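Supplementary Note 3. Input sequence used for the single-chain structure prediction.
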Amino acid sequence: MRTKLHYLWPILLLLVGSLVAQVDPGSANLIHLWTFEEGTANDQIGAAHGELAGNNIFIDNGDLVTVPNGEGVADSWVELPGYEIDIGGTCDEVAIAAWFTPDTANNYWNSLWFFGDDGQGAGMGSDGIGFQPRREDTKARFWFTTGNPSAPYMNEDGVDDVGNNYNEDKLYHVVCQVNSLGTQGEIMMYHDAVLIGTTALTSDETAGKDNVIYKISPNFARFCHSCYSGDIPWLGRIHEIAMFNKALSDEEVLYLFEHQDWSANLSAIKNEANTHPSEFSLAQNYPNPFNPTTEIGYSLKQREPVKLVVCDILGREIATLVNGYQDQGMYNITFNAQDLTSGIYYYQLRTSTGVLTKKMILMK
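The predicted structure, written as discrete structure tokens, is reproduced below.
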């Protein structure tokens, strides 16, 4: 005779398996973290601090909250310094994990987060990635495009949760990521630790489509808004957003889903990461193009001699912004090109660790 244990055995195996198959992703690849626990939209790991845009957004009990205005319309979001994030310039892979609770009033092309270029609000020329929990076509979508600037939405690669939209009044956990598969890569979306789908990034030269991670623009970054100015902002609560510079494994995604308090154990790591960068890096200037001032950020992993210069297109040094010893840390320098003519310029960071160069455009 079969006992109750016999019938329960497959369930027990499944439970034991789920407990075993969890891997803490740790902090080694954690590059940005927005918890809103300190009453701000500050980045707890990096320097991509957010600013609230609009009157109907606030921090409440450790959550970022957007609500409708007096006419019942969503009109507020968060602006972030895209140059501090710069997915295309700093990541070969990326994973963005978000914990959120929607307002059930979302019924348009709402985006929870977006990183890239907004094409002057029209979406044209948009290079980036975004996640829409609730779309007007009644599905959730993680999309990626660095394609034809005349019709970027026609060149998207995306993963859809067809027939589902994450718009109920409950907690959702979604991980969207890009891995490096050959020269193109692929995108993946998880909902509550379940893999929804995988889509290869594609290239079609005849259509001007070339979807690769290094082409994601650093010009814009937003929470609760997309790359189109006409899109209505997202309504609800964002509890936390974390960004990793690698694609997470199934086991790591499961760990995050099962440990909603995961980031609470990172306080010591947060402090160390803020004061002791582990990488020697040079960020893309912001804004870019610029007129006449722009910000240049860089990080040093040790005390060393530093020289930061600006060169013209022929390689001639036209300005020295830094020249001397600096301690380990993150730095941000303002460059004023008031006396220069429009054109392409290069800025170069020279240290004993190495030399890094990036291009910027002055447009008067």
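Confidence is low (pLDDT under 50) at residues 1-19, 267-275. Residues 53 and 77 are 5 Å apart (CA to CA).
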